[in-house]
Amino acid sequence: MGKRQIVIRQSAAESIAKISWYIESKGMFATAEQFADASYDFIEKLADQRKSHRLCRDPDRSALGFKCVSFRKKYTVVFIETDIELAIIEFIPSKLIRW
Questions:
Q1: What gap in Å lies between CA 28 and CA 36, rounded to an integer?
Q2: Higher per-residue confidence, 38 vs 98
Q3: Is 55 exposed, middle or buried (0-12, 13-18, 19+ CB in 10 A)?
Q4: By the 8 A CB rule, do 87 and 4 touch?
Q5: Packing angle, helices 10-25 and 29-46, rounded to 10
Q6: For labelling alongside 8, which of 29, 35, 75, 91 has CA 20 to 30 A away?
Q7: How far is it, in rounded angstroms, from Cα 79 to Cα 87?
Q8: Which residue, 21, 10, 29, 36, is CA-closest to 90?
Q9: Are 21 and 67 in contact (CB under 8 A)?
Q10: Average per-residue pLDDT in the chain?
Q11: How large is the average pLDDT for residues 28-33?
Q12: For residue range 7-18, what is the model confidence (pLDDT) as tens digits?
């Protein structure tokens, strides 16, 4: 199975860390760790070269050529994919996308 190189922008990594920290602040330490692990595992699965993903439905992100995938129906991963690289741009709550 061919994999693309994964590049995660600092802002996306910080978003995942902030969400994990919030979960941890509620006293759910194991859940916070599981969320972070599941997030990065999901991003790693996106790197499969056999799959191509659709453009975002949000007109602003679509015009820039960004692609979006839903993670756990609550978060959206925004990225750019090429034949050799997958660049993660944003990891945001789906509520923040207006279209």
A1: 13
A2: 38
A3: middle
A4: no
A5: 150
A6: 29
A7: 5
A8: 10
A9: no
A10: 93
A11: 96
A12: 999 999 999 999
Do 97 and 76 contact (CB within 8 A), yes or no?
yes
Does residue 50 contact residue 66 with C-beta atoms inside 8 Å? no
**Are the beta carbons of 99 and 58 closer than 8 angstroms?**
yes
Instruction: Give per-residue pLDDT as tens, 47-63.
Output: 998 888 999 998 999 99
**What pLDDT is recorded for position 3?**
85
Name the token pair of 48.
């499969």
**Which residue matches tokens 């690289």?**
85
Close Cβ partners of 63 (under 8 Å, ≥ 6 residues apart): none
Q: Give CA–CA dist 73/75, Å, rounded.
A: 6
Helix, strand or coil, per DSSP, at residue 91: strand
| Residue 35, both tokens | 């969320």
Q: Is 0.85 surpassed by the pTM of this model?
A: yes
pLDDT of residue 99: 60
